[in-house]
Amino acid sequence: MVALIPNDVFQFSTHSALTDLTSGKPLPQDLSSHGDFGLCAFSASRPLLLIAGAPFIVDEACNLHPVAPADERLAFAMVSVFRPDSSLMFPNGKLTRKTLGTAFDEASRNSICPFSFQASFTSVKLSSNATGSEDGVVARELKDVEGFVFGYAVPEWMRGICGPRVFCWFVASGGSGDDGRPGGRAGGWVVDFEGTGEVEVR
Fold first, then answer.
1. Which family does it belong to (predicted)?
2. What Å distances lie between residue 180 and 46, 52, 148, 151, 185, CA to CA?
3. Residue 183 — very low, low, confident or very high, per pLDDT cuts 50/70/90?
4. Alpha carbons 13 and 79: distance in angstroms, whole number
5. For position 140, what pLDDT does the model report?
6. Interatomic CA distance for residues 35 and 18, integer angstroms
7. Do 37 and 102 sit in the same domain of this protein?
8. N or C: which end of the chain has fewer CB within 10 A?
9. What is the CATH number of the domain that holds 51?
10. Domain count, the chain
């Protein structure tokens, strides 16, 4: 097997095809052979998150479940072996989906760039839909929450192939007694967010 390259992107299908495809090829258990973090979908209305090598489905109320159908194939997948090698700093109250996209523009990132960050948020708007659009339907809004974001910064010229400029998911941090696993937590594909405090995006 060829060694996986950190931060390289494995992609199946195109983002613009999500609205038409209802079946695909990769199985959820195949994803870990391509990376440990990613955004995937069985169809436009059924997203799947790859978190630390484990697949999680998202229900209509934007809660995560660790049981993915073993024999159902994915219509779309973007997966990476995520190993951050640079960072962007955002001062207090300056981190939103729009400002994050602008920062990647100013950093002249003209290729797909995986990123992640842990932060406190005044607001996180989530969608149970897999299109990841900035003007998508908000299925759930979380207020004053902490959590983890992973996603891809996508150059504008690749939008139809890979997704919107900032294409990401969110998982809420667990409370007291949490076992560290995301199952049962709030999460899903991000419509928008407002970070608070200084945040390092890696």
1. Belongs to the alpha-acetolactate decarboxylase family.
2. 24, 12, 12, 20, 10
3. low
4. 12
5. 92
6. 21
7. no
8. N
9. 3.30.1330.80
10. 2
Mark whether 27 and 95 lie in a shared domain: no
Residue 102 and residue 193 share a domain: yes
Domain that holds residue 31: 9-80
Residues recorded for the chain: 202
Q: What is the mean pLDDT of residues 14-22?
A: 60
Higher pLDDT, 8 or 145: 145
On whether the pTM is more than 0.70, the answer is yes
Angstrom distance (rounded) from CA 26 to CA 104: 30
Pairwise CA distance, residues 51 & 80, whole Å: 11
Residues with Cβ within 8 Å of 108's Cβ and at least 6 positions away in sequence, in order, are: none
| Residue 194: Cβ within 10 Å count | 17
- How far is the C-alpha of 117 from the C-alpha of 88, rounded, in Å? 10
Q: Residues 132, 158: one domain?
A: yes
Last residue of a domain, one of 59, 80, 101: 80
188 within 8 A of 169, measured Cβ to Cβ: yes
